[in-house]
Amino acid sequence: MSTESNLVALTVPRPDEALFKRSEQLLVYATARQIVSSEAAIAVGEDLKSIKSLAREIEDKRTSITGPINQALKEVNAFFKPAQEWLTQAERTLKGKLLEFQAEQDRIARELQVRADEQARKEREKLEAQASKAESKGKGERAEELREQAQSKLAPIVSSAAPKISGISTRETWKAEVTDKMAFVKHIIEARPDLIALVLIDQSALNAQARSLKDALNLPGVKAVKETILAARGNS
User: Fold this and answer.
1) 3-class secondary-structure state, position 222
2) How many distinct helices (H) and strands (E) make up the chain?
3) Long-range contact set of residues 103-110: C-beta below 8 Å, sequence gap at least 24
C-alpha cells in the first residue's frame, strides 16, 4: 500500500475581469485629465481616493490568491529543507576532508622536492670539485666531462601523491580583506583616484542625514535634495 500523499492541494479562482477593466479605464482617464481650475484639482483629489480604493481592493484580491500559494510554498520548502541541509553539510564535510588530504600530500611532495633538490645540488658540487681537481692535474678532457655530468644532475620533479579523481577539481580563489580602512581611503585619494569606485557610498545613511538635517546638511561633495511627494488616501 502506497504511503504517498499530496503535500498541498490548491484551487486558484480567477479574479473578476471587471477590476482590470476599471483599472485600465482609470489610466485612460488620468492620461486625458486636465487640471485648469481649483474645482478640477479638488475633483482630481477625489479621483485619487477612488484609485487608492480600487488599488486596495485589487491588492486584497491578489493576496487572497497568493496567500495560500505562499503558504503552500513555505510548507514544501520546509518539507525538503532538512534533506537539503544534510546533503549540504555532507558535501562540505567531505570536501573539507579531501582538501585536507590533498594539502597534506602537496606538503609532503614539496618536502621531498626540497630534499631531492638539495641532494642534486650536493652531487653537482661534488662533480664540480672533481672537475677542478682534474683540471689542476692537466686533465682538461676529464674536467669537461665531469662538468657536463654536473650540469645534468637535476632533481626529478616530485608530484603529489593525491590522486586525480574524476569529476573533482580544485582551484585557488583570492579575496581582499581591508585591515585599515582609513589607510586604504587615503591611498586612493592621494595616489589611486582611479580606484574610487572601490569605496562604496552608504546611501541609506546619507539619506538619514538629509532627513535629519535637511538644508543644514553640510558635507563636502554632498547636497541635500528635497522631493515633494503627494499622498492620497482611499475612500473610507
Assistant:
1) strand
2) 5, 0
3) 105/160, 105/161, 105/162, 106/160, 106/162, 108/160, 108/161, 109/158, 109/159, 109/160, 109/161, 110/158
Rounded-to-integer distance, Cα 169 and Cα 222, Å: 49
Q: Which residues are bridge partners to 222 per DSSP?
A: 219
- Which pLDDT score, from 0 to 100, does residue 195 have? 93
Q: Which residue in this structure is represented by grid cell 479605464? A: 25
In whole angstroms, what is the distance from residue 14 CA to residue 8 CA?
19
Q: Give residue 207's pLDDT.
A: 94
Question: Cell match 477612488: residue?
Answer: 50
Q: What angle do CA 222, 226, 230 make, to 5 degrees?
A: 155
8-state DSSP, 162: P
**Backbone φ and ψ of 36, nearest 5°:** -125, 5
Task: Give pLDDT < 70 ranges for the chain.
Answer: 1-4, 236
CA dist., res. 157 & res. 116, Å (int)? 9
Give the residue from 77, 46, 67, 37 showing the smallest Cα distance to 235.
46
Which residues are within 8 A (CB) of 119 and not within 5 positions of it... i.e. 6 or more apart? 155
C-alpha cell at 45: 483629489
pLDDT at residue 11, rounded to an integer: 79
Range 192-199, long-range pairs (CB < 8 A, 24+ positions)? none
The pLDDT of residue 229: 86
Structure confidence at residue 1 (pLDDT): 44
- H/E element holding 194? none
> Residue 206, class by beta-carbon neighbours within 10 Å (0-12 exposed, 13-18 middle, 19+ buried)?
middle
